[in-house]
Specification:
single chain; mainly alpha; three-stranded antiparallel sheet; 76% helix
């Protein structure tokens, strides 16, 4: 870990304590989420980058196995797209892994003032899965276009259509979590009650089995 990262983290934590004591929630949210984002990005290389890229490649491998339009080389984070002329090799790198978008989302959720810690944990996990699936869908769209249209449409498929699909799905996530926070909280409590009821019913069945009437 870099000494600059350690010093920056200490300064960031100290700034948060000052803002919290001063009761400045808006600045606390901005400084907190911004600082956490840079810390997560600094800590992501190389292990989390490796994890995210391989997770995305494995997700795309399932799409290729179903359609037969692509093959993957997980060891090298490469997706080979099959078309009528010649295969197109697409490398899944840092930018394609979705780690930047995931770090930004997590930083905002952690310091979002309307959720408690359990809701933040729930929406963090749900959001990470959503962004992951959005990235897999983006790459699947790119594979589909290149499979039928060929390598000449790589820029259009990758830099334009694929990104539009991905960021449209991410905007939906942000809109639901940060704009309709009350709706999201209601969803969280509904899911929590269902799991709680399931746990109670399972526990009752165990008690009946152990102590038959």
């Amino acid at each position: 870990m870099s000494i600059y990262l350690i010093i920056g983290t200490i300064v960031w934590l100290y700034a948060l304590t000052i803002l919290k004591r001063a009761k400045l929630p808006a600045f606390y949210f901005i400084v907190g989420s911004g600082g956490l984002f840079f810390i997560l990005i600094a800590l992501s290389d190389p292990y989390w980058v490796w994890f995210f890229t391989h997770a995305v490649v494995n997700g795309v491998r399932w799409f290729g196995a179903v359609t037969g339009w692509s093959t993957t080389m997980p060891k090298y984070s490469i997706v080979s797209i099959i078309n009528q002329t010649a295969p197109i090799n697409m490398s899944i790198d840092y930018e394609c892994s979705g780690i930047i978008e995931t770090a930004a989302y997590l930083s905002l959720v952690v310091f979002f003032p309307l959720y408690n810690r359990f809701e933040k944990l729930f929406f963090s996990v749900a959001g990470m899965l959503w962004i992951y699936m959005a990235n897999v869908i983006r790459l699947s769209v790119i594979i589909t276009i290149l499979h039928f249209a060929g390598a000449n449409y790589f820029f259009v498929a990758h830099a334009m259509i694929g990104r539009l699909v991905f960021y449209a799905l991410v905007i939906v996530l942000y809109y639901e979590i940060f704009t309709y926070s009350q709706v999201s909280q209601n969803l969280y409590h509904v899911i929590r009650r269902r799991f709680h009821r399931k746990g109670l019913s399972d526990g009752s069945e165990l008690l009946v089995k152990r102590h038959p009437v």
